[in-house]
Automatic annotation (TrEMBL):
Transmembrane portions of the chain: none
Protein name (Swiss-Prot/TrEMBL): chorismate mutase
Source organism of this protein record: Lampropedia aestuarii
Keywords, sorted A to Z: Isomerase
GO biological process assignments: chorismate metabolic process; salicylic acid biosynthetic process
Entry GO MF terms: chorismate mutase activity
E.C. number(s) listed in UniProt: 5.4.99.5
InterPro entries documented for this protein: Chorismate_II_sf, Chorismate_mutase-related, CM_dom_sf, CM_II_prokaryot
Record flagged with keyword Disulfide bond: no
Amino acid sequence: MNSTATPDTVTEPQLAIDKTVHCKDMAEVRKHVDALDDILVPLLVERGGYMTQAARIKPTQGHVRDEDRIEFIVARVRARAAQEGGQPDVIEAIYRSMMEAYIAYEHKEFDRLRDASTD
Ligand SMILES: C=C(O[C@@H]1C=C(C(=O)O)C=C[C@H]1O)C(=O)O
């Protein structure tokens, strides 16, 4: 520590561009984006599985959308994005849109699970 109580080594977050491999053309950029999507999609599918579980556990359709939980997630992922050297506003937009899609899916899953149980 120095006299102003600032840590001697302040670790700045790595910038998004510093996480990438330098590309010479768009084909290379797209190859890397496709490779990342191959990681992201299975994770999003797995996340969707928890929406099915939420649909099973929640007592009514009125419980599917939970505004407090949405705002908690947004605050959490914004902080995480900043920590990673990313853009909190971009991550927030992605998350809000993703959660809307999952809420619609959860509504459908809620009905599907209950319809099936009356067969
Ligand atoms: C899964 C839930 O249901 C909804 C879906 C959310 C999500 O995609 O993370 C968040 C809040 C809810 O409106 C939940 O309540 O946690």
